[in-house]
Specification:
With about 180 residues, the protein is of the alpha+beta class. The chain has helices at about 5-20, 40-60, 145-155; strands at about 65-70, 80-85, 85-100, 100-105, 115-120, 125-130, 135-140, 170. The longest helix has 22 residues, at about 40-60.
């Protein structure tokens, strides 16, 4: 678990680098590409890999709520989220509506290592996607879930949380991420 001790966090990152080599980090060109659409079969195969890798990462860090295909070197439009012990698969997602009201949150990103960015995002979004059964879905997400889904969808457009940082908001992780709260500023 990342803490306020930067040295300890560097040690955790070292373990992740050694034990989860599939992860691509900021600077890797695949993270800058717009992801290509997937078929249901292809998306499910990638989602299965994403789940294995995310759970491996979570075992080391006790963190990680989502992972997108570009983060493991696959330029494909699929991501997974992990909340309440449940994995959700989102293939070919699109934000179809968003709030004009925004909030801030110091976001971590698996591809940013131990660097966090203070990111402003809409407080709610409506996302359209295809689920693992091939069914079209359309759902409104609010609060932390809205932030998570926006963060993962941004990866499919070649964006990292570091790109959307509020001026002066990039910092090493020297705080307990579990205590971070959504805020107006």
């Amino acid at each position: 678990m990342f803490t306020s001790d930067l040295k300890q966090n560097v040690g955790i990152l070292k373990t992740v680098l050694e034990e989860v080599p599939e992860i691509c980090y900021a600077g890797n060109p695949v993270l800058r590409e717009v992801a290509a659409p997937v078929t249901i079969e292809e998306g499910n195969a990638i989602a299965a890999r994403l789940e294995i890798i995310l759970l491996k990462y979570r075992k080391i860090t006790a963190l990680g709520r989502g992972l997108a295909a570009p983060q493991i070197g696959e330029n494909k439009a699929v991501f997974i989220t992990y909340m309440d012990d449940k994995v959700e698969v989102c293939m070919n997602p699109k934000v179809v509506e968003r709030s004009s009201v925004t909030n801030f949150y110091r976001e971590l990103c698996i591809s940013a290592g131990i660097v966090a960015a203070d990111v402003e995002r809409p407080t709610w979004v409506v996302l359209a996607w295809t689920d693992r059964e091939g069914k079209p879905r359309n759902e409104k997400f609010e609060g932390f879930k809205a932030r998570l889904y926006q963060h993962e969808e941004a990866h499919l457009r070649g964006r990292l949380n570091l790109d959307d940082d509020a001026p002066g908001g990039i910092q090493f992780v020297t705080f307990d991420p579990r205590e971070e709260q959504l805020r107006d500023r």
